[in-house]
Each structure stands twice: as structure tokens, then as C-alpha cells.
Design goal:
Length: 75
């Protein structure tokens, strides 16, 4: 159905723009800032808790040692 260079009411250029926009929104959600956060590692979570004051220094070092031993065992 071609009506003087229009495809179903839109020119070909607009179809390309809309399809590109849909691909960008649905196929590339990880490249959009602040849409999805990557999973934090256990050490990252522990450091955040220590920095916020949830845990004390001794508890931080104990848990850090445990996590590092477990991670080195996986390698």
C-alpha cells in the first residue's frame, strides 16, 4: 500500500526512526543510565555497610576475610 511515498500514513524515514527507538528501549536496557543496577559483589556490599556505619571495624575485617577465603576457593 503505497500512497505517494507514504507507508501506512508515515514516510519511510519515520518508520526507521520508530523502529530504532523501539530497539534502543527494549533491546539495550543496560546501556540506559540509571535503568538497571548491576549486581554488587559481596565485598562491595560489605564495604558499603562499613562506610555507612552499620558494622564495626572488627566485624568488617572478619567478614572480609571469610569472603576473600571463599572467593579464592572458587578460583
Amino acid at each position: 500500500m503505497f500512497y505517494e511515498n507514504y507507508y501506512w500514513g508515515m514516510s519511510f524515514v519515520w518508520w526507521i526512526i520508530w523502529m530504532g527507538l523501539l530497539v534502543w528501549i527494549f533491546a539495550v536496557p543496560y546501556d540506559i543510565p540509571f535503568q538497571r543496577n548491576k549486581k554488587s559483589s559481596p565485598l562491595d556490599i560489605l564495604q558499603k555497610r562499613f562506610a555507612s556505619g552499620e558494622i564495626k571495624k572488627e566485624e568488617y575485617y572478619e567478614k572480609k576475610k571469610i569472603i576473600e577465603n571463599e572467593l579464592s576457593g572458587l578460583s
